[in-house]
Amino acid sequence: MDRWCRDPEVTAMIDRIGMHWKRLRGCWALPDATAHVRTILVNGQMRNLLHVVPWYVASNICTAGMVLYALWPFVRREAWPAWVAAFLLAHVAWAGHAIMALRSAGPGGRLLGLRDMHVSALWCAASAVLSGIGIYVGALQAGDDASRLLLSAYTPGLIAAGVLVGITTPLLSLIWLSVLTVVACLMVAQIGYLAQGVTIALLCCYALILAVALLFASRLFVRCIAAEQAAEQERHIVGLLLRDFEADARDWLWESNRAGELTRVGLRLCNLLGLGQDRLLGRPLDSLFAQQRMLEVRSDGAVGAAALRGLLAAGEPFSGVVLEARVGGELRSWTLSAKPLHAADGAWTGWRGVGVDVSDARAREAESSMREQHLHYLAHHDALTGLPNRRAFVEEAERQQATGGRWAVALLDLDHFKTVNDSLGHAAGDQLLCSVARRLRHATREGDALARLGGDEFAMLLRTLPVQGCAREIERRMQGLLAALRTRERIGDDHIDVRASIGASWTDGVLGASELLRQADTALYVAKNAGRDAARLHAPGMSDRLRERLAMVGDLAQAVARGEFEIDYMSLRDAGSLRVQGYEALVRWRHPRHGRLLPASFIPVAEESGIVVQIGLWVLEQACRDAMSWPRHQLVAVNASAVQLACASFVEDVMDVLRRVGLPPSRLELEVTETALARDAQGARVALQRLRTLGVRTAIDDFGVGYSSMAQLRELPFDRIKLDQSFAAALPHEPAGGMTQSIIASLVLLANNMHLDITAEGVEQAQQLQVLRALGCTTVQGYLFGAPACVDGSATDMADAAAQRPA
Fold this sequence. Notes:
Blueprint: H1 2-5, H2 8-25, H3 35-71, H4 80-104, H5 114-141, H6 145-165, H7 170-191, H8 196-248, E1 252-257, E2 262-265, H9 267-273, H10 277-280, H11 305-314, E3 318-327, E4 330-342, E5 348-357, H12 359-380, H13 390-403, E6 407-414, H14 417-424, H15 426-443, E7 449-454, E8 457-462, H16 470-485, E9 489-491, E10 494-496, E11 500-507, H17 513-529, E12 535-537, H18 544-562, E13 565-574, E14 580-591, E15 595-597, H19 599-609, H20 612-627, E16 635-640, H21 642-646, H22 650-661, E17 668-673, H23 674-679, H24 681-693, E18 697-703, H25 710-715, E19 720-723, H26 725-730, H27 739-753, E20 757-760, H28 766-775, E21 779-780, H29 793-802
Parallel strand pairs: 11-12, 14-16, 16-17, 17-18, 18-19, 19-20, 20-21
Antiparallel strand pairs: 1-2, 1-5, 3-4, 4-5, 6-8, 6-11, 7-8, 9-10, 13-14, 13-21, 14-15
């Protein structure tokens, strides 16, 4: 038996039988529904049946009486009184049960169930059997063909009427149909009609058709009940959601007429405005909100009551219109969406919509926009002087180039500014730069642009130049700038004679911004070589600086092989304990003719020529070898230029150096300037992401004076932000809570939120250190802890010990 049950064909057959049985049960039941739904179905089936039963019983008694009356002369009367009594008892009992069951299931009463169905089926079966007995006996006792014809007409009608009565309860109808069909077949067989076989076959065929039609009709009823229950459940859920929505949500529903006057108001809106429904009904919707815009948000579309009035008058569905109001002294915002309401004849009657609270989202967006504007300001302005920086100036020049016309660029460099820094200190130098910036502002004509490019270099964009005498006008303006600067500047107890050199170049729309800057730079170089305090306009013969650069390129190509490069190290210290966390490698070039050169004098040339890749690899390997002798907790920071990042083999070269030297990747930190990122942000992102995946740390250097933006910090994989030294330089010149301190605090908060270390460069005074500590900078660098120098293992320990002095 078990082996037979495990046979795949048998199993498949059993599954098919089960599937067909389940489908058949679906004609009168819901096998997969919940108990509640099944109960509702049985209740509906029984209600439909029991409402018809009394009427059917009455008609059945009447028709049976008429048939018996017609047959009475031909039957043996002694047996019929008992049959009549039983027939009446069964039918009256069935009708009585139906009436009592319906009364008990009245409003607030019980649900009709399977017990009621079983009792009704019992009386139905009894009635069917008694009706069949009466028909069969009457057919036997009737002696003439007229009586038999009467019974032949009566029987199918009785069968069909009974089936229709139980159309929602197939069980009862099938009992009725089965009993009376059998009786009809026996009657035909007993009476001896002609073509008895055909007659019986016809009876069975029509009985089968009735059964199939009955099941289909019942199935439709079952499906209707199931659909009603599903719809009722959905209505219940929607009702609950709407009640919860109006009671607890911050959003609200509304309806109005065509003019926008409220006709339905949710409790949420009433509570929100502190007004009763009677005071809101009939009031124009737009009158509830501010008539003037109160908060500027870039993502807003239609805003304000006037926009709402226009949309309501248009009669088309709308969404996203922003409305504002003050609630309890607090600015709140909503977006309204609505669809027109139409009557049965299609006429537009009003509006139905929802108000969605977007106060927090708009406040966040406005705050983010302000923060972005602040960062945009930082990215386009010099932190020390407040002037536009190099990036802003280049963008302005490119816009002027696109506009066309006759315009010029002038570059100004302070003469002997390094002497001021070296003799009086960087604080005095910064004070001088601020004074120069003020003088240049006053001397710059309206419509011209002024910027600080960095260090002691300023730039002017000169517009509205005359067609005739353009060169003389530029010369006149340059001399005016020099004259404005020649006034002696008092810094502390010292008087400084301010002088500058200016180089300029102009175009009538032929040259681009970059070429104009290059020519002005060449002219500036010539002006400096002319003895300072001079101005020069670019001329085709100004090629001395170019030749010098070409010579420097040749020297750089041989410098690595000759061993002319050296490395000094600037310590990176914990802002709290001042312990050394690592060192930044700073390359120096011991030139055979020019002596020891700083990176600023040769790295730009090396980048332009591509030799910086070779120099950078040498610096990287030498710095990693030096770091092997330091304590293991100290890292080494190496600068990477834009040219190196653009090199396809840069990542492999870095990892190859680390493998050969044996330095763990986590002890190496690569510093990238904002300018390098601006040249090829995508290439830099790919290279830095690969290096960080391999364990190398990354930092963005000179942050805040170049091309930095929120996007770079969000998209590029940095571990550290290094604030430009101009931030620290500005601290001694402003009171507590000044602009620079606010900017640094914002950047510290930004770094903390992004889990980045933040380093302040250019720390030269104990006062700067104390402020930077208070603002939350994690690490510091600067001459306060010593000038860049060679570092070995013992020196690092001594540096940690000496670090306690500045605190």
